[in-house]
Design goal:
about 350 residues; alpha+beta; Gyrase A, domain 2; Elongation Factor Tu (Ef-tu), domain 3; 3 domains; 6-stranded mixed sheet; 20 strands; about 20% helix; about 35% strand
C-alpha cells in the first residue's frame, strides 16, 4: 500500500488510518462532526496527496484536451482552472477532474486517486494520434487543502500573493514561506472557501509545519465526505462512474458541444431523445440516515431509484442525500420515500446546496 509524504506526521497526530484508493490515508483525527464543523466554521487542513496529477504540454496540448475533456478548454487562460470530466464513447464518466492552465501550451490535470492509472491510460491512448507531451506527476507532488472561511487570513503571511484577490477557480504560482513554486489554488471540495496547495513531496513536511504553526488543525477524509455532500458535490464511485450518463448526473453545465470530444455524439443523442433518470438532492423529513445503495420509492410504493450518497448532516442535524430517480420524480418538492431498515421514510427533493 502506498504512503503519502506526510504519513509520519499523520501517525504523530494520532490519526485513524484506513486503506483508500491504494493509499494509507487519515480518515479522522478526533470526531467526524468536530472536524466537519471546524472546517465549516473556521479552518482545517486535509492531506489529499493521494490525488493524481498529469502534465500536458506542447503545441498539441489543447487539441488533446479538446478530445478527452467535456468542457470548453478554449475558455481557459493562464491562471484559471476548470471543472471537467473524461467521457467514454457512450457518454458515461471515466472520471471528473480539474484542469489548470499554467501557461500557453502548459496544463495540469488533477484526477481522483482511484482512477490515476485508468485515466492516464485513456489520455495516453487518445494522444497516440495527437502528439502532446504527457507526463504522470502523481508520485512527485503533494497536495494540502486548507479549507474554511478563515483560511485566507491564516495563510496570508506565508506569501506575497494577495490571497483575497484570487477568484474562485483561479490560482497563482509563488513562493510560500521558504518553499518556492507552490501552486496556490482557490478551489476546494468543501464549499467552505479556502485554498489547495500543490508542492513537491520533499517540501510537504515544511508546508505542513507552516500550516500547523497557525493553529490550523488536521481533518480526515470522513469529514471531507460530509462537507462535500452538504454542497451536493459528486463523489466518483458513488454518484458518477462509467455506468452513469453524464447528463443524467447533472453534468450538462460542463458539457460543451463546440468540440468533437470523445462521447459527444452519444451525449447529443441522449439530449435529443431525452433522459430516463436524473441525479437529485433530497432531505429526510422522517428521522433516518440514507446510505449508498438504499432504495428510493414513490408514494405508491414503486421503486423509482437508489441513493448514491447519504449522511446525517453535521451542519443541519438531519439526513441528506443524493440519488438517481426517474425523471417524473425529479422535480423540487417532490415527495420520496427512502427504504431504511425495512421502513419507508419520507424525504423531499430539494435544491442544492444543502448548506447555503
Amino acid at each position: 500500500m502506498k504512503k503519502v509524504a506526510l504519513h509520519k506526521q499523520h501517525l504523530e497526530e494520532k490519526a485513524k488510518m484506513i486503506a483508500f484508493a491504494g493509499f494509507e490515508m487519515p480518515v479522522s483525527y478526533t470526531s467526524i462532526n468536530e472536524e466537519h464543523l471546524q472546517v465549516r466554521n473556521s479552518c482545517g487542513v486535509f492531506d489529499v496527496s493521494h490525488m493524481g496529477e498529469f502534465s500536458v504540454k506542447g503545441m498539441h496540448a489543447k487539441a488533446l484536451l479538446d478530445r478527452v475533456c467535456s468542457n470548453d478548454i478554449g475558455k481557459l487562460v493562464p491562471g484559471k482552472a476548470q471543472y471537467n470530466y473524461l467521457p467514454t464513447e457512450s457518454g458515461t464518466v471515466i472520471d471528473d477532474l480539474i484542469v489548470y492552465m499554467k501557461a500557453e501550451e502548459d496544463y495540469l490535470l488533477v484526477v481522483n486517486a482511484s482512477n490515476i492509472d485508468k485515466d492516464f491510460a485513456h489520455i495516453w491512448e487518445a494522444n497516440s494520434s495527437i502528439g502532446a507531451k504527457v507526463e504522470n506527476l502523481s508520485d512527485q507532488l503533494s497536495l494540502l487543502a486548507v479549507q474554511g472561511p478563515e483560511a485566507g487570513a491564516l495563510l496570508q503571511e506565508f506569501t506575497h500573493v494577495d490571497l483575497s484577490q484570487i477568484p474562485f477557480y483561479h490560482f497563482a504560482e509563488a513562493s510560500f514561506g521558504a518553499i518556492d513554486s507552490v501552486l496556490i489554488s482557490a478551489t476546494g471540495y468543501t464549499g467552505a472557501g479556502g485554498f489547495e496547495l500543490y508542492c513537491r513531496n520533499s517540501d510537504a513536511p515544511l508546508l505542513w509545519s507552516m500550516i500547523r504553526s497557525k493553529g490550523i488543525r488536521p481533518v480526515g477524509l470522513a469529514a471531507r465526505d460530509t462537507l462535500r455532500l452538504e454542497m451536493g458535490y459528486c463523489l466518483y464511485g458513488n454518484d458518477i462512474d462509467e455506468t452513469t450518463n453524464a447528463l443524467e448526473a447533472g453534468l450538462g453545465w460542463v458539457t460543451k458541444f463546440n468540440t468533437n470530444f470523445i462521447g459527444s455524439e452519444a451525449l447529443l443523442h441522449a439530449k435529443k431523445v431525452g433522459l430516463s433518470q436524473k441525479l437529485v438532492a433530497f432531505k429526510m423529513l422522517d428521522k433516518g440516515i440514507p446510505r449508498n445503495g438504499y432504495i428510493i420509492k414513490s408514494g405508491e410504493g414503486k421503486t423509482i431509484g437508489r441513493v448514491t450518497s447519504g449522511t446525517l448532516s453535521p451542519s443541519l442535524g438531519y439526513g441528506i442525500g443524493l440519488g438517481y430517480v426517474s425523471l417524473s420524480a425529479s422535480e423540487i418538492d417532490q415527495e420520496l420515500f427512502i427504504e431504511i431498515r425495512s421502513k419507508e421514510l419520507k424525504a423531499v427533493v430539494v435544491k442544492l446546496p444543502f448548506v447555503k
